[in-house]
Design brief:
- With 121 residues, the protein is mainly α.
- The protein has one domain: Up-down Bundle (Four Helix Bundle (Hemerythrin (Met), subunit A)).
- Helix 1 packs antiparallel against helix 2 and helix 2 packs parallel to helix 5.
- The chain is globular.
- The mean pLDDT is 89.
């Protein structure tokens, strides 16, 4: 079974953590990918946890992203919900917007919040 936490390791590498070197020409692509991978590391890890421990039943549709965040809120875990919402918003910006303001800050925040989700669960 795939360990979703591995996406966080990849995101950290893409985000310039762990001593990696990224050429300037692909830096923005790497940063955008880091935010996306950080989100999916947290989302998929949280989904697996919620299925195993909190009775979450995924529909395997795009609605699971919002449903999962609300499931954590309903189970008394508002910070997990907030982190998942933040991460999803940042991921959507990085995947769809032509310009992402303060991208390096979003990378830093995404890596931090994804790690917090994984550590909490």
């Amino acid at each position: 079974m795939f360990d979703w936490r591995d996406f966080l390791s990849l995101a950290e590498t893409l985000g310039g953590i762990q001593g990696s070197t990224i050429t300037v020409t692909i830096e923005e692509a790497a940063y955008r990918s880091a935010v996306s991978r950080a989100y999916y590391a947290a989302f998929c890890h949280a989904k697996a946890y919620a299925v195993q421990h909190l009775g979450f039943r995924p529909s395997n549709t795009p609605s699971d992203h919002g449903r999962l965040a609300w499931h954590f809120l309903a189970r008394g875990m508002p910070l997990i919900r907030q982190y998942l919402d933040d991460l999803r918003d940042w991921r959507n910006m990085c995947d769809y917007d032509d310009v992402v303001p303060d991208l390096s800050k979003k990378v830093e925040d995404a890596l931090k919040e994804a790690a917090l989700v994984i550590q909490a669960l």
